[in-house]
Specification:
It is built from 9 helices and 7 strands. It is α/β, with parallel strands linked by helices. It has 2 domains: about 150 residues, Rossmann fold; about 110 residues, no CATH class. The longest helix has about 35 residues.
């Protein structure tokens, strides 16, 4: 069996279309012969049963020259082929359709994109079959559509082995304020700074509160009028208190419980009763415990009120 493929580029090192070399290899393994017409050819390392025909883009050929070359190749190659496979570009179908119809050859379009154009509508009408990867990856409704699935070679993605250096995280997307790349960088720095994991993972409650606080201060507050901005600052201060309690609370609670236990009371209610009754009125440890409790409360409520000696 012999097929003709039309694609944009044969270039194994290309970041976007380098995968086409694998497609060519896999198709060639199932065919007696494969001819490939490409707009640009950057390699001659092809399977022995594959011939490539470049339209000359790598040599600077313009659109008119490429169109003439494509017409010339189609006229010579379609009669020899058992079918024509067009990859992603609807215009390839428009060029190939007259020759495929003339020689009664199947004309197949592979298309995975949600953009609709007049060319795509016409190509869908002219193609004998339309192939796509998933049910939602072709934007038009047609009985010609065949869902093929994603052909991913798992061998290209081996399971990583443990490494001494930390893993790298890559984000793909537009650099825009709404995408909040700053949150991603902040979260990554938090993960790197704190090894291990707890029950709830990252971000912690304190980190979430900090992120909300920063979002209100940096993104919401500048657009508010004076009265609303004041109330927002109050809310931000409350979030600061919550964040400090989440961060410092467990250690401060443990220290407070230890001080009360040393005084022989279970909680502050018992301590207050002992002070009123005079049982511990002259004990210096009671004054020290009460002062330490007040200082710890200020550490959470507003550290700015602490005396420099307690900071």
């Amino acid at each position: 069996m012999r097929w003709l493929m039309i694609t944009q580029k044969l270039a194994p090192d290309d970041d976007f279309l380098g995968f086409m070399m694998r497609w060519v290899e896999k198709l060639a393994a199932r065919l007696d012969h494969l001819d490939v017409i490409c707009q640009e050819q950057r390699t001659t390392d092809l399977p022995p049963n594959v011939r490539a025909f470049s339209l000359g883009k790598e040599r600077g050929a313009g659109r008119a020259a490429q169109a003439l070359a494509l017409t010339r190749y189609l006229r010579a190659l379609v009669p020899q082929a058992d079918g024509v496979f067009c990859h992603m570009i609807a215009r390839y179908v428009l060029f190939a359709a007259p020759w495929a119809r003339l020689h009664r050859k199947p004309l197949v379009l592979w298309y995975v994109h949600m953009q609709v154009s007049a060319e795509l509508r016409l190509a869908t009408a002219l193609a004998s079959h339309v192939l796509t990867a998933a049910p939602g990856s072709f934007p038009l409704s047609t009985p010609k559509l065949r869902v093929m699935g994603h052909g991913i070679d798992a061998a290209d993605f081996p399971i990583p082995q443990p490494e001494a250096s930390p893993p790298e995280i890559v984000m793909l997307g537009r650099l825009a304020r709404i995408k909040r790349q700053d949150w991603l960088l902040r979260a990554a720095s938090m993960v790197a700074a704190t090894p291990g994991a707890d029950l709830h993972g990252r971000p912690t409650a304190a980190e979430l509160v900090a992120a909300v606080r920063d979002h209100l201060a940096e993104d919401v507050a500048p657009g508010l009028e004076r009265g609303a901005a004041y109330h927002l600052r109050v809310a931000g201060n409350a979030l600061d208190v919550v964040a400090r309690q989440l961060e410092l609370g467990p250690a401060l609670d443990a220290a407070h419980a230890a001080r009360l236990a040393a005084l022989g009371v279970a909680d502050e209610r018992e301590l207050a009763a002992a002070v009123r009754s005079g049982e511990v009125a002259d004990d210096p440890a009671v004054g020290a415990a009460i002062r330490a409790a007040v200082v710890d409360r200020l550490r959470v409520a507003n550290p700015a009120w602490l005396h420099p000696s307690d900071s």
